[in-house]
Amino acid sequence: MKSLAELAAIREKMKDKVAIREGNNGIRIVVxxxxxxxxxxxxxxxxxxxxxxxxxxxxxxxTVSQTGCIGICQYEPVVEVYEQGKEKITYVKITPDKAKxxxxxxxxxxxxxxxxxxxxxxx
Length: 123
Prior knowledge:
Number of helices: 4
Distance between the termini: 48 Å
Shape: globular
Radius of gyration: 15 Å
């Protein structure tokens, strides 16, 4: 068993990550985490979004959460980005490197990375 001091340190370390995943900010990043998504690599994608949002100091702007099946298993890992007053963006076949680019260009910069979206013919 860990000491109370060790548990308090773990709690403090994880507090920011929990806030990123439970907030109610203007942008919601939702990662499909059903069995198909996890098998396709959604867990490292989710972790990358959480880490990048924290690293880029975007915790007041965006939250990251997970959901079950989105319904397009052949395109997993699937990430949906919801912004108030805008149409939902669905990113497909996302990797941790693609997640970093989405944070930099879409979440931080405001420009959708269209080559990763479901409507792109290159997928």
